[in-house]
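Tip: read the tokens left to right.
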């Protein structure tokens, strides 16, 4: 392809819409077993295939680096989330803290091949000034972006006086500094910006690549009050009951996950041991959370309506995914957030969900959302890296489920394949580790990844490696903040073909298999430049 805008008629190549949500649970959508009202997303799922074995990194910015490049995040400067980078990692190659130019982004590749490229929402691939990596510089012709990893959903944290522990929230429109309009709601605002970009495209004959990166349902838990009211009382029975209801709904939907042996909920305080007044607060937080999912669904409906009005929807491949598992960190009890929240947030029951509050769901609700899988965001267990995803659009079979393994690194090569673009990297750029899974999402094959392929993870000294039916994980010491009896700083082994919930550690029973996987992980670490401190 020549790369000249307009040299390819848009009707011969698909448009793309990639939607990423932030810290959403595997079963939060109604079509995956959830109770929130998600008719627009359910309708898209009915037109396509649920990707029920889709995997990411355990954290948001590292997932986004792989999504953008098709490379491992250590290879492109995002070895860890910059906010938790350690002294041992600082200054090391692969830990620059921003998306380096070692690899081309999918936006750059599609733009150069004649696509009109646009994004709205969370960037988080260069969160610190001087912002060496920004959307426009990395291929998005039109962008409106939050630079950091989280923000107040109503824009109430943009001055030194209102800033949270990570400083003031920073925004860029086409890489120029802008302010988020105070009082606007993030989900609606980011959807509106993408709709503006779609409408501005007008008669441009180029196909579109649209990237919509919501910050919901990431903490702080904020949502319009009229939506919160819809979920009053729905969570009064607690996370243990919610987990069982969701597993039952999965079975009713015919999802294989509903019949898996679920992991045990760990950490926090069981519902029956919580004081009545605290139960009210905990239930209210989930009511707000459900309203965040509802608002996101409503925003997606407006975006797809804009695409339909433009005449593009029927030719658009839509990929929806969460960037990692649900967040189980209770910010109200975790330094340094704990002290800031106590001093600055109004978390009285009646105020939860408003701009002046700051709450999070905590470990037990998160594990209800990630069931049947083990743990949640930050960890390399399935609950941290196996996320809700689906695809729909031309050539993708309706009302189907793909249970074959998929990885976020596969997204970039898949889009290139669907666009008819050679996946070979531009001169001087690193090749992609991911592979096109176009045949899999079209139902032409069950799985693209080879049965004996090594897939590995590393984040904040936590580790994971999968090969065939087996997976080994290594939980870092911070896991003891959840529950002191969780196994830390040693390898665990699971046969995930029969135990995807990672309920039975086979490390002692299968020492040779464990050693095989551990050796594979260290080979991976050498290949991508993981910094492994002594004794780890």
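Filled-in amino acids:
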């Amino acid at each position: 392809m020549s790369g000249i805008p307009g040299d390819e008629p848009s009707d011969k190549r698909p448009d793309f819409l990639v939607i990423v949500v932030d810290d959403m649970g595997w079963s939060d959508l109604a079509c995956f077993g959830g109770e929130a009202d998600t008719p627009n997303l359910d309708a898209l799922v009915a037109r396509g295939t649920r990707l029920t074995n889709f995997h990411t990194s355990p954290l948001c910015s590292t997932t986004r680096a792989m999504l953008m490049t098709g490379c491992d995040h250590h290879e492109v400067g995002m070895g860890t989330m910059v906010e938790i980078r350690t002294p041992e990692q600082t200054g090391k190659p692969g830990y620059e803290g921003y998306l380096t130019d070692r690899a081309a982004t999918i936006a750059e590749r599609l733009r150069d091949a004649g696509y009109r490229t646009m994004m709205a929402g969370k960037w988080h691939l260069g969160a610190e000034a001087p912002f060496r990596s920004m959307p426009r510089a990395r291929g998005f012709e039109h962008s409106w972006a939050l630079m950091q990893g989280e923000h107040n959903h109503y824009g109430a944290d943009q001055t030194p006086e209102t800033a949270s522990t990570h400083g003031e929230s920073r925004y860029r429109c086409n890489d120029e500094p802008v302010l988020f309009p105070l009082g606007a709601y993030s989900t609606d605002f980011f959807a509106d910006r993408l709709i503006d970009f779609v409408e501005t495209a007008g008669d441009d004959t180029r196909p579109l690549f649209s990237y919509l990166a919501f910050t919901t349902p990431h903490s702080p838990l904020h949502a319009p009050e009229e939506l919160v009211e819809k979920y009053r009382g729905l969570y009064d029975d607690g996370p243990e009951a919610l987990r069982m209801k969701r597993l039952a709904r999965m079975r009713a939907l015919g999802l294989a996950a509903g019949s898996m042996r679920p992991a045990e909920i760990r950490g926090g305080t069981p519902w029956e041991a919580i004081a009545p007044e605290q139960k009210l607060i905990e239930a209210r937080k989930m009511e707000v959370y459900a309203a965040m999912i509802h608002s996101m669904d409503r925003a997606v409906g407006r975006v797809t309506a804009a695409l339909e009005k433009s005449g593009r929807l029927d030719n658009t491949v839509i990929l929806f995914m969460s960037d990692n598992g649900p967040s189980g960190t209770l910010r109200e009890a975790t330094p340094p957030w704990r002290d800031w929240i106590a001093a600055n947030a109004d978390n009285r029951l009646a105020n939860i969900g408003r701009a002046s509050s700051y709450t999070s769901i905590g470990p037990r609700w998160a594990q209800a959302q990630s069931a049947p899988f083990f743990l949640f965001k930050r960890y390399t267990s399935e609950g941290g890296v196996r996320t809700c995803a689906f695809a729909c659009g031309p050539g993708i079979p309706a009302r189907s489920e793909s249970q074959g393994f998929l990885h976020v690194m596969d997204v970039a090569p898949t889009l290139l394949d669907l666009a008819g673009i050679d996946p070979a990297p531009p001169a001087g750029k690193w090749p992609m580790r991911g592979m096109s899974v176009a045949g899999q999402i079209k139902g032409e094959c069950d799985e693209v990844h080879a049965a004996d392929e090594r897939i590995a993870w590393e984040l904040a000294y936590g580790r994971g490696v999968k090969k065939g039916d087996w997976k080994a994980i290594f939980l870092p010491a911070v896991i003891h903040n959840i529950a002191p009896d969780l196994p830390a700083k040693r390898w665990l082994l699971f046969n995930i073909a029969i135990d995807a919930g990672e309920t039975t550690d086979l490390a002692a029973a299968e020492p040779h298999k464990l050693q095989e996987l551990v050796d594979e992980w260290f080979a991976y670490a050498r290949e991508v430049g993981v910094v492994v401190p002594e004794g780890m």
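Residues 157 and 163 are 5 Å apart (CA to CA). The two ends are 48 Å apart (CA to CA).
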